[in-house]
Write a structure and sequence with these properties.
The protein has two helices and eleven strands; from the N terminus they run αββββββαβββββ. With 196 residues, it is of the alpha+beta class. It starts with a helix and ends with a strand.
Length: 196
């Protein structure tokens, strides 16, 4: 009996050690924020309204051959929104929409990924906006190239979310006849890491 318990404990310890080592194997990527973009496309009165957030922080650990150990964490400064219209930017930051003063950041976190074929991957994560969190699946195309001792990755993806699900739309902005519920979130991330 004691031997069986010892063997079980040893197996559990070995599994834990292996999983810890696995998590440490996912390499860290350094994001080039000058080349990267986190943006969106909304609609207003039938016209597309593109915009982006100029400030965001990212922590990326990703390995195509070790998805179990991969993770991403993106924090977006709502006050950095720009749409080409100062009045529109102020409206987006106002209490009726994102309420940037009370909820200064949006956040996307994922530690589960799946390969969808070819260069397509899906990050299964959770998105927090205006203090509300819901799960989302973010599909993206990944291209990785090598130049000497440096790997460069470009991840390009988008997902459509329902803004009212996160409470983005109070008062007149709850009406979806002028501003539809659907908003497309876009990412274009450029990152590098040492090869090998």
């Amino acid at each position: 009996m004691a031997n069986r318990l010892t063997a079980t404990a040893f197996a559990a310890l070995t599994a834990f050690t292996a999983s810890t080592a696995l998590a440490q194997q996912a390499p860290v990527w350094t994001v080039d924020h000058d080349k990267s973009r986190v943006g969106f496309i909304a609609q207003q009165s039938g016209n597309a309204v593109p915009g982006e957030f100029e400030r965001f922080q990212t922590t990326i650990r990703f390995d195509r051959d070790n998805l179990e150990a991969s993770s991403v964490d993106v924090r977006i400064a709502i006050a950095s929104v720009t749409t080409g219209s100062l009045d529109r930017d102020q409206t987006i930051k106002s209490p009726n929409l994102f309420h940037a003063q009370k909820y200064p950041n949006a956040r996307f976190q994922a530690d589960s990924f799946r390969h969808a074929g070819g260069n397509t991957y899906i990050a299964e994560g959770k998105l927090t906006m205006r203090g509300t969190t819901h799960p989302i699946d973010l599909p993206f195309e990944l291209e990785v190239t090598r130049d000497g001792d440096t790997l460069t990755a470009v991840a390009d993806g988008e997902v459509t979310v329902k803004r009212l699900r996160w409470g983005i739309g109070k008062g007149q902005w709850q009406d979806t006849s002028m501003v539809p519920n659907d908003v497309v979130i876009e990412i274009d991330i450029h990152a590098t890491r040492p090869a090998g």
